[in-house]
Amino acid sequence: MSKRKNPSGTDNLNGDFCDFLMELAEYEKNVSRNIHKYNAYRKAASVLAALDKRIESGDEAKKLKGIGEKIAKKIDEFLQTGKLAKLENIHQDEEAQAISLLTRVSGIGPVKAADLVRGGIKSIEDLRNHQNRLTHHQLIGLKYFEDFEKKIPRSEIQEIEKKLKGYIIGSDSQFTVTICGSFRRGKQESGDIDALVTHPLVQAPGGKKKHNEQILKKIVETLSDLITDTISLGDTKFMGVCRLSSELPARRLDIRLIPSDQYHCAVLYFTGSDVFNKTMRSHALEKGFTLNEYSLRPVGVTGIPGEPVPVSSEEEIFDYIDYPYKKPEERNM
Ligand code: 8DG
Ligand code: CA
Ligand code: CA
To answer: Model pTM?
Structure first.
């Protein structure tokens, strides 16, 4: 059995089920483009990963919230045969395999991947021979394909964090910098680096875009030691590539510039996990609030959201909606 850990750090006794559910989820997202099935498989995997006992049958699994008839049947099939016919078929399907492969390139989504495969472009080598079909982002994804597949060790992100804070806060002590994503949830490895930055002078959306654009541009300039490529640079978001040293792989880095009054909602949102976010958002709705990456707003009887409530910490958001506070490390659903 797989030695995967579950979110609380103990062995995931259902790791093999989670593995096939996550593989099915990726297939639904990238090949079928069925986001509902994608979410259903991921939800089921997250429920099974959190269990402290091994599931022995589909019927037993079906009693859990988030697992229905179809997934229960797959669990039975897997228990009886050790595999899944559906996955075996997918593995034999050359076109599905090619689409899955191409979506691993940063910037290539399911639609573009299907389009390329239809045009006979099915491998990384094919991409290298047809670079005229790729956008700037996709070209960078291709250039660093091998590097971006490598997970980033926590210790390396800690180094990058030190540098980011040193340069940014060194340029102006009123900046606040938080690395969110799986890093903030305490993971030992991450796929990329999600940095959030705020400053009292950052304008709210609808405010002066040019002003924010200048702030973000200056931030990126102070990081020239670290940043090797820019994918895109706007008034709220930098997407690019950073590298600590020439011996280490290049890493994907996003920097988002957030107005102060939206900072805690943004930190909460970009800390994730996205399954956790979904759970918290639906809890908020039950309590009469709508929660997103920008704000927490009460929803009146008319169903129209009111003005954002003032938020001065992450804990306050939990308080408002009567949700027991969860530390970032407890949000790995
Ligand atoms: P990883 O990079 O180590 O693979 O994991 P991650 O840090 O949890 O995932 P991410 O894709 O970098 O996204 C960062 C957080 O952003 C995620 O934990 C929750 C939030 N988020 C959502 N939905 C989405 C979405 O559709 N796209 C992105 N980029 N982020 C999202 O809740
Ligand atoms: Ca991340
Ligand atoms: Ca990210």
So the answer is: 0.91
Q: Is 191 in the pocket of ligand 1 (CB under 6 A)?
A: yes
Dump pLDDT digits (tens) for 263-303: 999 999 999 999 899 999 999 999 999 999 999 999 988 88
- The answer to whether the beta carbons of residues 14 and 50 sit under 8 Å apart is no
Taking the C-alpha atoms of residue 30 and residue 99, their distance in angstroms, rounded to an integer, is 7
Phi, psi of 85, rounded to the nearest 5 degrees: -60, -40
Q: Does ligand 1 have an atom closer than 6 angstroms to the CB of 100? A: no
For ligand 1, is residue 194 a contact (CB within 6 Å)? yes
CB 281 within 8 A of CB 268: no
Angle at 151 between CA 149 and CA 157, to 5 degrees: 130
Atom of ligand 1 nearest to the CA of 277: 32
Give the domains, in start order, of the chain with CATH numbers.
1-92 (1.10.150.110), 99-149 (1.10.150.20), 152-258 (3.30.460.10), 265-330 (3.30.210.10)
pLDDT 10s digits, 148-188 = 999 999 999 999 999 999 999 999 999 999 999 999 999 99
